[in-house]
Design goal:
The relative contact order is 0.14. By secondary structure, this protein is mainly α. Helix content is 89%, strand content 0%. The longest helix is centred in the C-terminal third of the chain and has 41 residues.
Length: 213
């Protein structure tokens, strides 16, 4: 019964905010494409410098000289938590709407640039490396970013309406309560993603580097 109730809540939420979800997803994909295009606009020397540092890093991974898994977990969790936390705070401010959209676009750009650069420099091996180093945690992180950005945009729009159009359709406190609960749940998902990035990705990367190296 509870499962069906939660499913109904999710379906209703998706239906009510489908246009915002579509906009957010398209914006994120534009960021990914832009990031991949930026790779092609780099000069030869810039690519060589980046590839040198990348080779150094992969050498360290292969030799097991990267930071400990616990350190990687903390770095990943704190980085993503700060990013999501900033989106959350911007959502409850009237001026935060454009910054949320910029942050989302930048997240897409980083993913697109990373994958694009690896593939551009290393071809099929680069694709394999991006598949094991970038994609595992991002299968969880990207949906989390899209959902939180959509909810933050929705809240921000409601705050703007309340402020400038004086439309008080629903009390704001229960809405903020749900908002906080969402970000607590998101914190748990980010911890899972950080665990994947810290404990699973390095092992997969080492396997791929050793097999292609």
């Amino acid at each position: 019964m509870k499962k069906k109730m939660y499913q109904n809540v999710v379906v209703t939420h998706l239906r009510e905010h489908s246009s915002i979800y579509l906009f957010v997803i398209v914006l994120f994909l534009m960021g990914v494409i832009f990031g991949a295009v930026v790779v092609n606009s780099l000069s030869f020397s810039q690519k060589e410098d980046l590839y040198y540092y990348l080779s150094q890093f992969f050498g360290q991974v292969s030799n097991g000289k990267i930071a400990t898994s616990n350190d990687l977990f903390l770095q990943s969790f704190m980085h993503n938590s700060k990013y999501i936390g900033l989106i959350g705070l911007l959502g409850i401010s009237i001026i935060g709407l454009p910054i949320i959209l910029i942050l989302l676009f930048m997240k897409g750009m980083v993913v697109g640039f990373t994958v694009g650069f690896l593939v551009n420099q290393m071809g099929w091996n680069g694709f394999l490396l991006s598949f094991v180093s970038v994609l595992p945690q991002n299968f969880l992180i990207i949906p989390v970013f899209i959902v939180t950005a959509t909810v933050a945009v929705t809240i921000s729009l409601k705050m703007i309406k309340r402020q400038f159009m004086k439309k008080i359709s629903e009390p704001i406190l229960p809405l903020l309560g749900k908002y906080v609960m969402l970000f607590i749940a998101v914190g748990f998902l980010l911890a899972v993603a950080a665990g994947i990035e810290a404990y699973l990705s390095p092992a997969l990367m080492k396997t791929v580097i050793d097999s292609v190296g």
